[in-house]
Amino acid sequence: MVILKSFLNNIPFPLWIEELNNTVLFFNQAYSDMFNVNFNVINILKGYHIFPKNVAKIYNSNRIHCIETLSKSIFEATINDQILQFHIFPLLGEKDEIIAIGSILLDLTSQRKYDVELESQKNILRTIIDSLPHNIFYKDKSNKFIGYNKNFKNFYNKLGVTDIIGKSDLDIFPDKDTAMNFIKQDEEVISSKIAKYSEYYSIDENGNPCFEESVKVPVIDDSGNVWGVVGISNNITKRKILEDKLRYLSYTDSLTKLYNRSYFEEKIKELNDEKYLPLGVIMGDVNGLKLVNDTFGHLEGDKLLKSIAYVLKNVCGDKGFVFRWGGDEFIMLIPNCNENLCENTVSRIRFECENYNYDFIKLSIALGETVKYFLDQDVYECIKDVEEKVYRQKLLDGKSVRSALMDSLRKTLEAKHTETEEHTERVVKYAYVIGKALNFKIAQLDELYLVAKLHDIGKIGIKEDILLKSDTLTTDELKIMRTHCEKGYRILQASGELENVATCVLCHHERWDGTGYPIGLSKSEIPLMARIIAVADSYDAMTCERPYKKALTKKEAIEELQKCSGSQFDPDIIKAFLNYLKNNDD
């Protein structure tokens, strides 16, 4: 009995035994300490005396229930800010009759505080998880959903899926291949105990195709056992679109929309593979870009580059890759391309350029091609090879190409201004007779012919609303019109072989007295051929009717030439020209 009493006194929570009439037969040390009761009150103390009235009432009720039903009764009550749990149970005799009541008191205060704190933390965590714009879910090892956040629930509710708990991906995903892929990912995470990131095509909450990313993390206990998977998925369609756009911008030439040199560096690594050999390498260098830039401005030069890019892309199609290599240079890489196919591609490019409907000049591009047959061939050596071919072609064809470009510009001007062709032919005629009168040699006459033929070439760079205006030009419009001298000079300078002609075209509106434009030269400072063109051009202008003025008679024009001799015109040239006019019917 002493041993049992000692054992009960060492139990760290209060317990007591009372008779059926409430008299306490025994209580342990923990009971004495909690309620400050001495052991000498045993057999005097009633079980409910030590409890507050409200607790005593509940206690008695549960005690009676225990006696009547011979079953255990449990309830909780608060005494002095302590949360206590009462366990009341019957003590039975040898014949299973009730002989006494036993009670145990557990202090749950700390546990309840912990439970409240834990619940508070869980609520905070749940609020955070529910507020995230991601789908978050928890699965057990058998791929069954055991939890999820509000976003996940709403997502699948919109797709008509409810009651997700206890279901697997196969139960909620309409696409079984996608579901099996998710299950496979889960199994990999569980078996490897390593988180897994993935991106994949899926559907959004409205059933539309989208791009998603997910991270799945194994849930591992302190013993290293995996009991499930936590996953986070997110719709990244906008991000992928932005990434694709940025990738496009970083690898695309903004003007021509072709691939740029940066993408070439990436693509050439990929194409250095047996399955792409032989690899055709073609380089092109646009002819006439500087001429167009100088004549019509860089916006028109950009149009020329875009037109060339269109032709190259159209010819290469889906079988090859076209890159803008530099300012006016392009490179084409064509997989599985032998020499014949490479040469045919070059021929097609030339044909398409010849027949392309560009506003001002015929498209022209110098081309060189080669083929890379072996993996150990350096593609940059191939490029060096085709560069030499391109530059060689530009040297061989340069003169004819520039001549064709110039002729194309002249014809374009004549098409814009119908009077230009007739005016030019008359100026050529008058200039020729003056040159003959001044004893020009054949070479000089040939050059004078070019100056006369091209003296107004700069007008191609003047807007049509000014060039074709029927009324007198305003001061500002006149300033613009006068720039045709400089524009013509730049055009002819671009040819590289017409420097003297270019200078004469620049100066054909200078005056003998130095009051002309664009430089203000006088007398012998003005090139002789420019002085001749000034006379021939002015005479034709005076004797031809214009919308804003009547034509002068031949006699009136001669009088005007005589009056301007020594001020606007070179007297010697006027003398030679008047001698011709007086003896001919022009």
UniProtKB/TrEMBL annotation:
InterPro entries, alphabetized: Cyclic_di-GMP/3'3'-cGAMP_PDE, GGDEF_dom, HD/PDEase_dom, HD_GYP_dom, Nucleotide_cyclase, PAS, PAS-assoc_C, PAS-like_dom_sf
Protein name, as recorded: PAS domain S-box-containing protein/diguanylate cyclase (GGDEF) domain-containing protein
Limits of the HD-GYP domain: 398-586
NCBIfam families (UniProt xref): GGDEF (TIGR00254), sensory_box (TIGR00229)
Database matches in Pfam families: GGDEF, HD_5, PAS_4, PAS_8
All residue ranges annotated as the GGDEF domain in the record: 277-407
UniProt cross-references to PROSITE patterns, sorted A to Z: GGDEF, HD_GYP, PAC
Originating species: Clostridium cadaveris
Residue ranges occupied by any PAC domain in the UniProt entry: 196-248
